[in-house]
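ARCHIVE CARD
SHELF: 3
SLOT: left
DATA:
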Amino acid sequence: MSELPLDAYYDLTQVGEVAVSPTGDRVAFTATEYDQAADEAVSSLFVAPTDGSREPHRLTSDSGASAPTWGPDGDRLAFVAARDRDAERRVGWRDRDEGDDDEEAETEDDEGGDEAEEDEDEPLGNGDEEPKPQVWIFDLALGGDARQVTERDEGVAGFDWSPDGDRLVIESRDPTDEESEYLEQVREEGGPIETTRLQHKVNGAGWTDDVTRYLFVVDLDDPESDPRRLDDAYGGGAFEDLAGMDPTWGGSGRIAFTSCRLDRPDDTTVRDLYAVSPDGGDAERLTGGDLSHGAPAWRPDGDGIATVASDPDDPPAPAEVYLVGESGGEIASLTADLDRTVARGGEPLWIDGEIYTRIADESRTRLVRVEPDGTVERLFEAQGRDRAMAGFDVADDGSTAVTVLSDPTEGTDLYAVDVDDLDEESEPDSFRRLTRVNESLVDEFAMPEARRVEWESDGWTLDGVLYHDPDVDPEAGDHPLVVAIHGGPMSYDEPVFSFGHAALTSWGYLVFRPNYRGGTSRGREFTAELTGKWGTAEVDDIAAGVESLADRGWVDPDRVFGHGFSYGGIAQGFLVTREPDLFTAAAPEHGIYDLRSAFGTDDTHVWLEAEFGLPWENPEAYDSSTAVLDAGNIETPLLVMAGGEDWRCPPSQSEQLYVAARKQGIDAELVVYPDEHHNIGDPDRAIHRLEKILDWYETHDPAVEGESDEE
C-alpha cells in the first residue's frame, strides 16, 4: 500500500452538468479540471456521441463553461461562460517526478507563465476588465468557435431556447443609473456597503443589493438589436442570487419563471411559478404563495408544468414533484404518497407524457418514473447499490438517456442507455460507457473499495458506507478510523468516487460515512428526528456506529478521528462536547457552534426561524442546540477550519470553538482560508486542507507516538 501523493489532485477531473441532444445522438457535458500554474479550477465544455464510438471532444478553448443547452434543431449548443483564455494546455500536475525531467518541466512552466501574461493583456470582448458570464452558441453543423450572443453589463444568470430556435430568453440584473453608480463605488472604489435588505448577504454571492432581475428576449436573427425586457417578468426572494429565476420557454409559447412577490420576500424561501408572454404584458402567477417551487418543466403538449417544490414551514418534509396547470389554480403533488424527497439537483424530465426524476431512497440516489396520476415506479436496477447516480438527462425524442455514475474505484463517468431498457432488472445490452475522465488517475493510484454497513441505534437500523484501501482487509482488525460526517444535515451518503477518500485510505485509515437520523432518503419521520434539536439523535447514531465497528474487531477504538464539513463540522462540535471520549482527534470544518450568534451573521435566518423559532422568543431551543455552551467538556485535540467569507457558517463560529478549546489548554489549531466561501475552492487550498488534516491525525495518533517512542 502506497500513499496517494496529494499533488495528484491536479490530475482530478470532475463531471458537472449533462445535456442530451434532442435526437439522443450526442451528449454535452461540463467537466472541471485543475490548472496548476494559475492554481484554479477550470470548467470546460465537451461533446461525445452516445453510441460510444468516439472519445469526448473538447469544445471550449476558454474556461468557465456552464449550463449547456441544445437548440431545438440539435445542431446548435448554447452555454454560459465568462470566457477568458485557453484551458486545454493548462490543466494537470506538472513535474511530479524528480530528476532528469525537472529542467524540461520548469521550461514548460515558464513558457506557460509567459503565455498567460500575454493573454491577460488581450481585450476580453465585453467591455470590462474581467469577463461577465454571457451566452455563447456553437453551430456544430457549420463548425468553428462559439459566437457570443449576449453582452449584458451584469452578465447572464440563466437562459432557455424558444421552441422555434430563433430566440432566447435570458435572465439578467438590470440596475438603474443610481444603482449602477452604487455598484461602481462598491466594486471598483471600495466604497461602503449600504443596504436595507433583510437578506443582506448570501453565501457565494456576498453582500446583496436592490438591483432587480428581469427576463429579456434575444432575437438571434438580429444580433445587433437590444434584448427586449419583459417588464413584469422580474424576480425577487431571499436566495434568488443562488436559485435564479429558472426561465423555461414552453411549447405553447409562454415562458415560465420563478419569483417571490410576497410582502416580505426576504423573510421567506417561498418561490412561486409565473408565466408570461415573450411579447410582454402581465405575468400570471400559477401557484399559491406557500411553497418553494423550482426546476419548472413544461409538459410537451403545453398543458401543465412540472416543478419540484418544498414547504418552507415544514423543514423535514420531502421535496415533491408537483404538476401545475398552465392557467393556474390546479396544483397537485404527484409524489406525496412516496415519502421520499427529490434528490439534490433532481429535476423533472418529460418523456411520452411521463416524468423522470431522481429521488433519495434508502441511502442512494435512484431514478423513478412518475405518472400524471401520481403512480411512481422505481427504475434502473442496473445501477446497483455500490455506485451513485450523480446526474441524468434524456433526449427529447425519448430514445436515449445518459446517466452520470460515481463508482468509488472506477471514477465518475457518463453512461448511455436506451430509455426503453430503463425497466430492465439487470444491465441491458444498450448500456454503454461514454467517458473515462479519470483513467490516468485510477490506473496509476489505488482507489478505495467501499462496502455498506449496518448497526442499531435507539431502535433504528442505520446504515453507512465504509471505504478502505484495496490492500486492506477491514475484518483483519484494529484499523485507525476516520468518521467522515455528511453535511446538510438533510442529506445522505452512498458509495462515490472521492479524491479525499482515496487520500485517507491510502494512509491506512478506514473511512466511515454514517447515515444518521436527521438525514434524508428514509422518509419524513427519519428526517424529523433531528429537526429543532441538533446534538441529539446524530450524536447517538454516530457514536453507536463507531462502537459497532469496534465491537466487530475492525477498528481500534483508541484511533478514531473526526472529519466533516458544514453540518459534518457542526456534528463534531456536539460529539467532542457530548461524547468527549469518542475521537482521538477531530477536524471540524466550516461549522456552527453557537446558534444564537449565528442568527443574522450567517445567511440562513429564514431556515433557522422555521426550525427553531426566533432566538429572542425561543432562546432555550437555540441554547440546547449550541455546542460551545458545553465546551468545558472538550478533551479532544481540534483542528478547526473555516472560510474567511463563508456566510453560511461564518468564520467567527470556528473562532469561538477554537478559543474555547485553547482557553482550557486543549491542543487546537485554527486555519482560515481568507477568501473562501462555504466550499473547498482553489486546488492549492484543497491540497493544503488534506495535508493539514492528515498531519493532525498522525500527530495525535497513539500508534504513531508509540512508534516514535520505540525509535
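SLOT: right
DATA:
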Amino acid sequence: MSPEVVTLSDAILFSLVTLALILGCALLLDSNRSKDRAVFGTILILMLANYVYFRLTTTLPAFDWSAYAIWPRIYLAFEAVVILYTLLSIVFFFRRTDHTGAADTSEAMISRMGKPPAVDVFICTYNEDVTILERTILAAKAIDYGNFTIWILDDGRREWLRDYCGELGVRYLTRDDNKGAKGGNINNAIRWSKQITNAPFILILDADFAPQRPILKRIIGQFVDPEIGLIQTPQFYYNADPVQHNLLASKAWVDDQRIFFDVMQPSKDGWGAAFCVGTSCVVRRDALELIGGMPEETVTEDIHLTYRLMQKGLRTRWLNERLSVGLSAESLSGYITQRCRWCLGTIQVALLRDGPFFGRGYTLMQRLHYFHGLLFWFCRPFMLLLMAAPILFYFLGLPAILMEPEAFFLYALPMVGAMWTFHAWVSGWRSLPLFTEVSQMVSAIPITIAICHAIAHPFGRPFKVTAKGEDRTRVDILYPIATTFALIIILTFTGMLNGPLLSNYSGLDSFSVAWGMVVMVYAFVSMLVCIELPREPLDAIKFPVGRKTAMTCNGQALPCTVDSLSLTQAEISLQQPRIGMNAGVGDLLLFSPFPGFDVAGRIDRVDQNRSSFTVSVVAVKERRESEDIHAHPAIVRRKMIQRLYSEMPEAMPGRAYPLAALRALFSRMFQKPSAYSGQTRMAANTVSVRRSRWRPSPGGILASGSRALPAPGQGLLPPAAE
C-alpha cells in the first residue's frame, strides 16, 4: 500500500485492523512456549523491516550539505540503533531457560548430606548504615544450610561495625585502602578466607541484599556440572524504585529491572550468555583462582567476571528464582548514578584487550550478546532527539521525518503498537507504555553525558556507590533534570502555537503537532518523577503477608489473617468479620505471622466492627531455636528482622496493572507533593531508626512485662493456630 493512493480514513482503518490482529496474537499465543515467541517475534521483525524500508526510501529529503538534509539522517542513524537493539532482543527472546528442576534436585541433594560443601558468604560494604547492614547480616545467619561462614568485607574501616560483627558472631575483614573498589575488596577476602576456611564456594552479597533461607540449598548442588563457574539469581526489591514511588505506582507497576531479570537474562541464558550482576550469586573458588581473582580494571566487576570465566570455558547459569531481596535506589540521584556506573562499566569492558570485542576465547554469539547490551545504553541519546525533534521543526523548519498522516497510520503506528504489545506479552505483562519509557527518559540526559565521557576518557573514573538508607522524609526536587523537562514542554507548546496551530498547516504539520503532544506528555510525567516524594523509614515499611492463622486475646481465640507486617507493627483482620472479638486498645494480642514464629502485640487500633486490628510488636518467640520469649526491644527487633527478611513476602507487584497505574498517575498530577510529607513524618515518629552508630544491646533475655505472656513451655499460640 502506498500513502499516495490511500485516503486518511483508509489508512486509519488499516492501522486499526493491524493492531487488532496483533492484539489477537497476544491473546491467543502463549509467551511461555518458544514456538509461539518465534511466531509472534517473526511477525514483528517483518513489520520492522517494512518500516525500515519505508523510512529509507520515502521519508528522507534529497541529500545535500544543508541542515535540512543532514538532520533527518542523523535522526535516522540513532533510530537505527534502537531498531537494531529491538531486532536482536526479539531473536534472543526465542530461547529461554528454566533451571527450577535443577534447583529442586540440588535442594534434595544438599538436604540428604550430613555436612554439605563449605560456603563463604561475603557481604560487601563501604558506607552503609547499621539499619541497612543488620537486615543482610541477620538474614544471612538464618540461611538454611549446614556449613557456611559469614564474612563482612568493610571497605569503610569502621570500628563500630567490627564490634557489631563480634556481637553477632560473624567474621570481620577490612584493609588499608580501597584499591580496586568492590573487586579489590572481594580479592582481599578471597586471600584471607583461603587461609582460614578455604570454602570451595563463595556467596557474594551486597550490603543491602538479604538472602532467603533456601538460597544455598537451591544453588550449591547445581555445581555438579563442571562447566558452571557461577550461578546468578535475580535481584528483587522490597521498596519501590524512584519512578514507581514518585508516580505513586508502586502497587501498579513493576520496577524497571524486572524485565531484565525475569525475561532478558533467562533468554540470554538460553543462548549461553547470561552474566553476573554483582550480588546474590555463588561462584566457585577454583574458578576465581583460574582467572586470577575478581576483576578490578572496571567499575562493573560483575559482567567483567562473567566474560573472564567465558574465556576459560566456564559459563554463568541464571537461576530465575527469588532467593534474595534488596533495597532499590531510594532517590532519583542514586538511581541515575547507579545506571551511569553500569553504562560506564559496560563500555569499559568492551574496550579491554581481553574483553568480548578484542579478546580471544569468545564465541560469535557471546560477542553479539555483549554488543546487544552495549546498544541498550546507546539507545538513550535517541530519546533526547525524540524530544528535540518537534522543537527543531517548529522553530527552524527542520523535520526529522518527512511523513504524511496517511503514511503514519500505514507504517509507523502499527509498528509501534506491535512493539508495545509484543514487549508486554513476552515479558508476562510487566511492560507498560508510558511508564516504561519514562523510566528510561529520566536518565537519558545523564547517561548520554556518561557515554560521551566514557568514549573520551573510559578509564580512571572513581567507583561511585549508590546511596542507600538516606533521610527521605521531605519533598526533594532534582532541579537540573526537572528544569530540562519543563523547558521541553514550554518550547514545544510555544513552537506549536507559533507554528502549525496558528497557521494553515499541511499534513506534515499535523504530524508534528501529534508528535509534539506526545513529547509534552512524556516530558510532563518525567518531570513529575523528578519531584521526589517523601518515603517512610525502612522500619515502617509494611509487607503484605496474607497468612491465615489464629489470634488469641483475653482467653478468646479466633481465626484471622495477618494482612501486613513491619518490624514494629502488624495489621490483622478476622476471617469471619461478623464475629467480633472482645478486645480493646491496650490489650495484648497473640498471633503467628510465620510458621514456628509467635508474636505478642499491644492493640493500637480497633475498627468499629472489631474485625480488624493494628498492633505494635512487643515480644516474640522463635520456636525453631528455643522456647524463650524475648521481650527486650533490641532482641525483639533482631528476631523480627531475621525472620521477616530471610522469608520476605513479595512486596512489589509481579506484573503491570494499567488502570491502577493511570489512576495513580492522575492522583499524582492533582495532589500537592507536600501532602505526603506529613504522612511520612508520622510514620517516622512511630519507629526508632538507629543511625550511623551502633550501641551494644544488653546481653541475655529481658522479660519486662512478661506477666501478660504465657509461660515459655506453652508457646504464644495454641498448636492449632499453625
